[in-house]
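DATA SHEET
Item: assembly model
Revision: 1
Owner: S.N.
Input lines:
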Amino acid sequence: MTAIILDGRAIAKRIQQEVAADIARMKNKYGRVPGLAAVIVGADPASQMYVQMKRNRCAEVGMESFLHELPASATQGELEGLIAALNADPRVDGILVQLPIPDHIDEEAALKAIDLSKDVDGFHPINVGRLTMKGRDPLYLPATPYGCMYLLHEAEKLVEGFQIEGSRAVVLGRSNIVGMPMALLLIHANATVTVVHSRTKDIPSLVGEADIVIGAMGRPEMIKGEWFKEGAVAIDVATVKVDDPTAKKGYVWKGDFEYDKAAERVAAITPVPGGVGPMTIAMLLKNTLTSAQRSINV
Ligand code: GUN
């Protein structure tokens, strides 16, 4: 079997074109565009790179973006003061506090300070709580799991006989940002979900039973190609830089899956990079547009 490649770059581009068209209409009709504020605490190079990528995509779709960089020594009060100012700023429809933040800051309190209507990352405790319950829709879904669900719905169109509902799903990892919300979204979509973590026994046999496998551990190629069930759909969230002296740049990006061998067995798979990564940004833009539309009641 040769796997269908779930091309996140192309799908994200399509979503961004739709977002851009809606923004152009909003600008024409209401004289304003959505705005996204990104807050970084400390100078983590990975966070700076992710936020820059988000701001570049904002510019491409005609969305305003505002960058606020606080030093690693910033206090809880300074961060929450900045969040309060962004809550009050009518140009800002979405606020994202790039995680992780330094240990001395209470992350939950900071996320709780974000106005619920501007919580486009979906990490406010109320939005997280709503996600855990049946029939209590969060205002926004966290961007990465939302992007994975979008890719799974694409797979439903592309892979004959594949349906999320009724399938067996394995989520590898239980982080607040990806694994946990991903498992919840799959349950809401009527999949039967197993969450695999560092204490799980016999991971190969669990992966071997799964129709859907979500890799969100950040452990390069830990999940071997031969473990996958034939015809499964494989979504790899992990993107880890691995030294490789034979590569032009001296490194390559790897996901949790042993990609080449997995691609020989599964029905569909996301590439790394170019799979989930671009989808995350597209969903964040979509959430920010939704926030702006809600604020002007369109
Ligand atoms: N850190 C890693 N992924 C994310 C994300 O989706 N949102 C935020 N705010 N921080 C992150």
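QC remark: The chain has two domains: 31-115, 143-277.
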